[in-house]
Amino acid sequence: MEEKKLPDVLKKETSRRDFLRGTATAAGSALAITAIGGIAPKKAEAQYSVQGVPGTPPYAQKYRFAERHNCTGCRSCEFACSLFHTGNVRPALSRIYITKYKDMVDVPVMCWHCDDAPCIAACPTTPKAIQKDAKTNGIVLNEKICLGAKCMKCQEACPAKYIRGNPDTGQPLICDLCGGDPQCVKACQEQSGNPQGPCLMGRPVGIGVNMAYRSVTPEEAGKDLANLLFYPNVEGKRVVPAKSKTKKGR
Amino acid sequence: MATPKGGNFGKVLEIDLSKQTFKTRPVSDEILQQYIGGRGLGAYYAVTEYKAGKNALDEDAFVFVGPGPLSGTTKKPVWLSIVNDKVEFKDASKMWGKTTDETHEMMVKEMKDPEIRTAVIGPAGENGVPYSCIIVERYRAAARSGTGMVFGDKKLKGFAVRGTKYAVPVADNAKFLAAAKVNKDNNVRREAWEGIKRWGTGGLMELKHYLHGSLIVKNYQTTWFPDVVKIGGEEAARTFWKRHASCTNCPTHCLKLGVIRSGKYAGMVAEGPEYESGGLLGSNLGMTKFDEMIALIEACDAYGLDNISTGGVLAFTTEAVEKGALKPTDLDGLKPKWNDGDTYMEMIRKIAYQEGKAGKLMAKGVRKMSKEIGKGSEAYANHTKGKELAAHDPRGDKIRAYSYTMGTCGGDHHEGQGPQALGMTAMADSLCICSFTNFLVYGAGTDKIITDMLNPLCGWNWKPEDYWTTAKRIFTAERVFNVREGISSKDDRLPIRMYKEKLPAGPRKDVIFTDADQKDMETKTYGFFGWDAKGIPTEATLKAYGLDYLIADVNAAKKKYNL
Ligand code: SF4
Ligand code: SF4
Ligand code: SF4
Ligand code: SF4
Q: Hey, what CATH topology would domain B200-388 get?
């Protein structure tokens, strides 16, 4: 059914965003490559051929994806991120973090580098305190301009509910993609063991699905994972054993 | 007294439950260089703060958690929330009686923070079961030494922690990171590590059965149990495991979470089987039904019971009934039989609540039960120093006997196989690093790898030899703690069955743990650590390790117990 629709979509003159919305499916994503940023099909293919080699120059890893069910909750990513940005291991300052859903699954909470970046659109300062680095697609914070805890309009605007505050400065912790060589991705690949592949991967192209990922909150992602992995116990209820028949505690 | 340059904040948090106060106590760099932290520091406080004969249930007895002690007793149940620099004493009366998972959820809810980490006891700890444990993050147990009971006695339901404020200081970051990279390269993609990642320890059930001849079966009567295919790692991987999961901040994802999809336990989410939980509550009970075995494991986690001791008690009770030493009338009418999951489930419940005659009897543990029952039951009472043995039959896995007999806590499987490994485990536990991925993976290079990281981290000048001196110091300090209570070579022994009954089948058929094996193990261990033939640390040894302050204690114990 969808196959039939596709040509219609392509024929229609649409804004880039509408187009991405309409094709954020597996069937449509291959075609989407050609549309992003006007990359010619041939060049896109060339970029695609280096996927899976994170940080391979000269292609910056402009997007990240998560194979969410592969996340083990190890937090190697949090270590790597805080180490890279602060010189110390302090997960509270990581730009990616892991949250638990019902103690059954771990959900990586991260920036999807939305092509329309609602966070930036919402930022009230002029010039904007957060901006995209055109080369890397990372979002860079200007600490001198940012209004911090009393503002946090970016946090409100982020559909992924990703942004959290820096516990020291109150300013948002956002992902600059480490200048094109995402450290969290490397850490995740190194921790992953047989047979489980890594959860995180870096990609030179976002093929549109990054926009779909961002509309899922951590809680929704957790629910999906619980459903996928632990059906029929979707609610994460523990089948609690019988209690005492005669007494409660001592 | 120098303050540490890195790797440590140089203080421990001391919590007094009686007065509901807390303070930090400084720890000098000199002490940390000698005892590191974790287990080593715990040993240091145990031998310096306690005199011989200390009862763990005394009001002023402390529980040492990682790097800080907790002492005192409260009248009303409390739990602690520890967020950055703040400790709060919270009312736990609504949590009292709740299972570990319910308690955990209540804490998360009250603190409104899914990132908190908890350590709690269940009904078993509240009710004073000596082999109750503390459950961490819902599926992980700090077990084997009855800490759950001590928490329960103090009316402490548990604590929740969260830290966002500090990064651990590092004396020389560049050097430390370079050494940490060497460490990582030694770790990542190593076969031993990947095996643990893939199978957890559950996959060992088949290995120990088919190759090593050390899987425990029906209270250590044999090691041959072809039905292992129904309850082991392969079955779990095929029908149960859905997720590989890590404890927070550990890249070894050895937890395996699964869900039972049909039958009477449909919907049960549990962690396991691990080698120990699957051995003790599976093959050791003759279990052939996967879901029933998993349910027993899950019940122990929920009640806060040590899987290993509980499995040991259930198997001992079953054999005692089989041999006529116990009757159903002694057990509130229960008739335990191998592979009878429902009865075992009821027995676990009774233990957790110390309910009825059966619950009270079984909560005592194998050694005391056997003493009480008599009737030749000591021949199959499988414990060392009063602690139930783990899931490795030492006839099939002889080197495991080091851990059981020479380890500080008795009956443990993971204290180190061989003299060096005993020291390496003490070091790993003191450094608070995973002992799987420490010496199992690094092997002979461990001393250098660790020293190279420790020096830039803490600003020390250790040589690899210092790693060994420290290992021996910590392990010997613990030994002195035991010697003060009258422990010597006479107690460093396996259960009677291991010396008397040949294995009837399997890859190690007809093997027995001989007197020569025992002698050899004693000579090697005592020799390595510098203890005499009775297993008592000599004066020269104590001096060499800087434990001079314990010489008087050892001499007093020698006199008192005629050692
Ligand atoms: S995911 Fe959130 S923070 Fe990242 S670009 Fe989109 S709106 Fe901004
Ligand atoms: S908190 Fe800073 S970055 Fe975010 S919207 Fe406000 S000014 Fe912009
Ligand atoms: S890409 Fe870099 S900044 Fe972004 S979360 Fe990963 S490590 Fe942190
Ligand atoms: S490193 Fe990968 S597997 Fe580990 S917590 Fe991060 S995303 Fe999950």
A: 1.10.569
CB contact under 8 A, B267 and A239: yes
Tens digit of each residue's pLDDT (9 = 90 or more) over B378-395: 999 999 999 999 999 999
Give the span between the Cα atoms of A175 and A136, in whole angstroms: 11
Residue A120 near ligand 2, beta carbon < 6 Å: no
Burial of A177: CB neighbours in 10 Å, binned 0-12, 13-18, 19+: buried
pLDDT-derived band at A246 (thresholds 50, 70, 90) equals: low
A175: left (phi over 0), alpha (psi -120 to 50) or beta: beta
**B-chain residues near A245 (CB < 8 A):** 355
pLDDT (tens digit, 9 = 90+) per residue, B68-127? 566 777 789 999 999 998 999 999 999 999 999 999 999 999 999 888 999 999 999 999
Mention every residue, 6+ apart, whose C-beta is less than 8 A from residue A216.
A160, A224
Are the CB atoms for B472 and B35 separated by under 8 Å?
no
Interface touch B138/A250, C-beta < 8 Å? no
Q: Angle at the Cα of A183 (from A178 to A185), degrees rounded to 5?
A: 120
Q: Which ligand is nearest to the CA of A141?
A: 2
Domain with CATH 3.60.9.10 in chain B: 11-162
Mutate which of A120, A141, A147, A173 for ligand 2 pocket (most atoms within 8 A of beta carbon): A147
Ramachandran angles phi, psi of B310, nearest 5°: -60, -45
CATH 1.10.569.10 location in chain B: 200-388
For A153-220, the DSSP string reads: HHHHH-TT---EE-TTT--EE---GGGGS-HHHHHHHHH--TTPPPSEEEES--TTHHHHHTTS-HHH
pLDDT at A193: 67
What residue has token string 């000269």?
A58
Reported as a pLDDT band with limits 50, 70 and 90, residue A194 is low
Structure tokens at B262: 């049909």
First to last CA, chain A: 65
In tens, the pLDDT along B489-504 reads 999 999 999 999 999 9
Q: Is the pLDDT of residue B45 over 70?
A: yes
Spelled out in words, what is the top-level CATH class assigned to the domain A64-229? alpha beta
Query: How far, in Å, CA of B121 to CA of B99, rounded?
Result: 8
**A56 burial type by CB count under 10 A (0-12 exposed, 13-18 middle, 19+ buried):** middle
The pLDDT tens digits of the residues spanning A19-45 come to 333 333 333 333 333 333 323 333 333
Q: Quote the pTM value.
A: 0.89
| Alpha carbons B437 and B441: distance in angstroms, whole number | 5
Per the CB < 8 A criterion, the answer to whether B69 and B63 are in contact is: yes
How far does CA B435 lie from the centroid of its chain?
Answer: 12
Q: Where in chain B is the domain with CATH 1.10.599.10?
A: 419-561
State both tokens at B250. Answer: 């550990």
d(CA B526, CA B402): 11
| pLDDT for B560 beyond 90 | yes
Question: Which of A74, A167, A190 has the CB atom closest to B250's CB atom?
Answer: A74
Chain B residues with beta carbon closer than 8 angstroms to that of A232: 259, 261, 266-267
**In CATH, which superfamily holds the domain spanning B11-162?**
Aldehyde ferredoxin oxidoreductase, N-terminal domain (3.60.9.10)
Q: What is the CATH number of domain B419-561?
A: 1.10.599.10
Which helix or strand (DSSP H or E) is residue B464 part of?
helix B464-483
What is the CA angle B459-A82-A123, rounded to 5?
Answer: 145
Of the bound ligands, which one is closest to the alpha carbon of residue A160? 1
ipTM of the complex: 0.89
| Chain B residues with CB-CB distance to A91 below 8 A | 249
Q: Is the pLDDT of residue B17 over 80?
A: yes
Nearest CA in chain A to B164: A92
